[in-house]
């Protein structure tokens, strides 16, 4: 099993370089902002009284990306009890997976930025045109409107969309790093899926976070992870980080099921590293045995014969001769009492009507 690569989650382990980097983002927040205050407390080694403002900030997509990024950072450096750790993990996982509702003001913000930049660019071009070429003011004004529209819609709107997406991805990356520091096993599925995210910032943040969480798995976690955890771990076997692949293999040995057999067989045949192929070959028999047991349990639960005529069989009246031949060796069947002549006549009427 590879040596774990944990992420530091003690306040004393915050490096001076990280504090300087975070300070630049904290400085953008308004004075009196609760997230800013809690970030200052963490950087000054003061205890955090409550994490609710951090959770509220992360859960609200209308908050600024800078505030949400700092809120995610603070959660990763705050010592939490089990209840708060579960709550923080749930919110951070939603942020990483992009499960939160879209910001309704996003396109308003993008449009405003585009118009502002387009207006400034147009104003500069109009002044240069009047200064060098002169011309009618109304004509220059109409040209300015056309130029501003062109600058706002053509180059600036895609650029504003890209910048907005980049800010959101920074928040998601901060959430991935904090999930690694919190070391909650419920985040394995989200972190594994983030390994193949479209954003390189998110992909880079997910690798050390997953390396920190996977060594915490124990045999008691078998079958307790999410539905997509094992398929995502199997997909991570093709990652370029060899240490991460070794951690994933060790995790599959502990919690893997029959779905991991085929990916490991392919890894044994075409693995890019001898260490990876050897470890996969050692783990493969364990997963094959689990697959055999899973298939055997499914066979036991399968019906041995169709029961389409079961109702008719159970409701069919039985005559006394059949019961007597069935229990010929006994004086009285265990569930048939001795009947009188009146009972025999009643049975005969029932059989005749049937």
Structure description:
The structure is a single chain. Mean pLDDT is 78; it is low at 1-6, 310-315 and 322-338. The protein has 16 helices and no strands. The chain starts with 15 loop residues before the first helix and ends with a helix. Helix content is 67%, strand content 0%. The protein has 354 residues and is an all-alpha fold.
In short:
By secondary structure, this protein is mainly α. It has helices at 16-26, 34-43, 52-59, 65-76, 82-97, 106-133, 137-182, 188-194, 200-213, 229-235, 242-255, 261-270, 274-301, 310-315, 320-326, 341-353.
**Total DSSP helices:** 16
Average pLDDT confidence is 78
Classify the helix fraction into a percent range: 55-70%
Distance between the termini: 73 Å
Count of beta strands: 0
What sequence of helices (H) and strands (E) makes up the elements?
A: HHHHHHHHHHHHHHHH
Radius of gyration: 34 Å
- What structural class do the secondary elements suggest? mainly alpha
Strand content: under 5%
Question: Spans of 5+ residues with little confidence (pLDDT < 50)?
Answer: 1-6, 310-315, 322-338
Principal-axis shape equals globular
Described by strand count, sense and barrel closure, the largest sheet is:
none
Write the layout of secondary structure elements.
Elements: H1 16-26, H2 34-43, H3 52-59, H4 65-76, H5 82-97, H6 106-133, H7 137-182, H8 188-194, H9 200-213, H10 229-235, H11 242-255, H12 261-270, H13 274-301, H14 310-315, H15 320-326, H16 341-353
């Amino acid at each position: 099993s590879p040596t774990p690569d944990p992420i530091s989650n003690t306040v004393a382990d915050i490096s001076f370089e990280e504090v300087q980097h975070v300070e630049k983002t904290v400085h953008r927040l308004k004075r009196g902002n609760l997230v800013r205050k809690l970030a200052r407390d963490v950087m000054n080694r003061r205890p955090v009284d409550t994490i609710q403002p951090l959770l509220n900030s992360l859960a609200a997509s209308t908050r600024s990306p800078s505030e949400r990024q700092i809120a995610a950072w603070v959660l990763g450096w705050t010592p939490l009890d089990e209840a708060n750790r579960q709550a923080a993990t749930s919110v951070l996982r939603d942020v990483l997976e992009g499960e939160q509702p879209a910001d309704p003001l996003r396109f308003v913000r993008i449009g405003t930025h585009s118009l502002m930049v387009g207006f400034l660019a147009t104003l500069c071009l109009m002044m240069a045109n009047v200064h060098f070429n002169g011309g009618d003011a109304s004509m220059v004004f109409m040209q300015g409107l056309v130029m501003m529209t062109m600058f706002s819609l053509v180059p600036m709107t895609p650029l504003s969309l890209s910048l907005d997406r980049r800010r959101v991805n920074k928040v998601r990356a901060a959430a991935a790093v904090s999930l690694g520091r919190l070391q909650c096993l419920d985040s394995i599925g989200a972190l594994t899926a983030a390994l193949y995210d479209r954003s390189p910032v998110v992909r880079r943040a997910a690798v050390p976070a997953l390396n920190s969480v996977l060594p915490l798995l124990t045999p008691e976690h078998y079958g307790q992870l999410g539905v997509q955890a094992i398929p995502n771990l199997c997909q991570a076997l093709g990652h370029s980080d060899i240490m991460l692949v070794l951690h994933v293999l060790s995790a599959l040995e502990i919690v893997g099921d029959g779905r991991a057999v085929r990916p490991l067989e392919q890894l044994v045949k075409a693995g890019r590293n001898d260490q990876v192929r050897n470890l996969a070959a050692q783990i493969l028999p364990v997963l094959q045995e689990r697959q055999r047991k899973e298939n055997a349990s499914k066979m036991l639960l399968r019906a041995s014969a169709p029961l389409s005529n079961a109702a008719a069989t159970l409701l069919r009246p039985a005559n006394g001769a059949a019961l007597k031949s069935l229990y010929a060796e006994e004086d009285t069947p265990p569930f048939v009492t001795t009947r009188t002549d009146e009972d025999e006549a009643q049975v005969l009427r029932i059989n005749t009507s049937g």
